[in-house]
Write a structure and sequence with these properties.
310 residues, alpha+beta, Glutamine Phosphoribosylpyrophosphate, subunit 1, domain 1, nine-stranded mixed beta sheet, four-stranded antiparallel beta sheet, 13 strands, 23% strand, globular
Length: 310
């Protein structure tokens, strides 16, 4: 089983043209097929997660990799994490600017270093030494994301206060993520993001933080989150879902709903959602925002993609 998300937020039918919707659906389907193909060939859940996320990192529609949003300083700073449910090993990178596929850098940290998280220049140097693809920062520039930053900067100049949690581009939390269950019964999770438009220098959200935006353990579930990162960090969202499954015996659906639609929903700013998967192939994709790009592909090999709440 392979499940993915492409971000959550104010995503409604009336705000989406048929052409745009088709592009998003096609992008999600391509990523789902890539991850599922790995599983079908007997690949590991880690392999599948990396493969699916790389597709979305290379797609400018999604806020990860090529489609990353801009910081206040006009830079693209990328974060990513990956976790192996079998070994409990994990790797993440944060604040990187020249690594084409941050999810692959996160995997390199997990497998080829003794650390879990590497940031900024150090993470970039490590990725370079590991032979990962390095690009000029201009590779990540897209007109849509640049215009979104300029719009927010104009609002600031009008004297409007900068909120402690800035409004994301298009009111969307455009993180991408995947969870997978392979033929050996092992779980894995991964998440990648460009953060939020107009974020302060050095800001890091929940995506690369193990237990907040990303978590996987064979004794419970694999989780990838998307949303208002500051709250997902404080409420250790991904691990909280896993703990409810492990210690209270809740189903993956019950646990994910408890955290997303009860705990977080009680906080007006804590908008977002998760994808969660257990070792029996049961999964949940709850969100408390108006929409979330999400999809799954199972034994029948048919990709299913949903966007809206209804």
């Amino acid at each position: 089983m392979f499940v993915m998300h492409g971000g959550a937020g104010t995503i409604t039918r009336k705000s989406m043209t048929p052409e745009a919707e088709k592009q998003y659906r096609d992008g999600m389907e391509q990523a789902l097929r890539a991850g599922y193909a790995v599983l079908q060939k007997g690949g590991t859940s880690i392999d599948a997660v990396e493969a699916g996320i790389r597709i979305l990192e290379d797609n400018p529609l999604f806020n990860a990799g090529k489609g990353a949003v801009f910081t206040h300083e006009g830079k693209n700073e990328l974060d990513a994490a990956i976790m192996d449910g079998k070994t409990m090993k994990a790797g993440s990178v944060a604040g990187v600017t020249i690594i084409r596929n941050p999810i692959s850098a996160a995997r390199a940290v997990m497998e080829k270093s003794k650390h879990v998280m590497m940031v900024g220049r150090g993470a970039e140097l490590f990725a370079t030494k590991m032979g990962l693809e390095i690009v000029d920062p201009s590779y990540f520039w897209t007109e849509k994301r640049w215009k979104a930053l300029q719009q927010q900067l104009v609002e600031e100049q009008k004297g409007k206060p900068v909120a402690s949690v800035p409004v994301p581009d298009d009111h969307k939390f455009g993180t991408v993520g995947a969870v997978a269950l392979d033929k050996e019964g092992n779980l894995a999770a991964g998440t990648s993001t460009g953060g939020i438009t107009n974020k302060m220098y050095g800001r890091v959200g929940d995506a690369p933080i193990i237990g907040a935006g990303t978590y996987a353990a064979n004794d419970s579930v694999a989780v990838s989150a998307t949303g208002a990162g500051e709250y997902f960090i404080r409420w250790t969202v991904a691990y909280d879902i896993a703990a409810l499954v492990k210690y209270k015996g809740l189903s993956v659906q019950q646990a994910a709903d408890e955290v997303v639609n009860k705990k977080l929903k009680a906080i007006p700013e804590a908008e977002g959602g998760v994808i969660a998967l257990d070792r029996q192939g049961n999964f949940a994709t709850p969100f408390n925002s108006e929409g979330m790009y999400r999809g799954w592909i199972g034994a029948d090999g048919v990709p299913h993609v949903e966007i809206y709440k209804d």
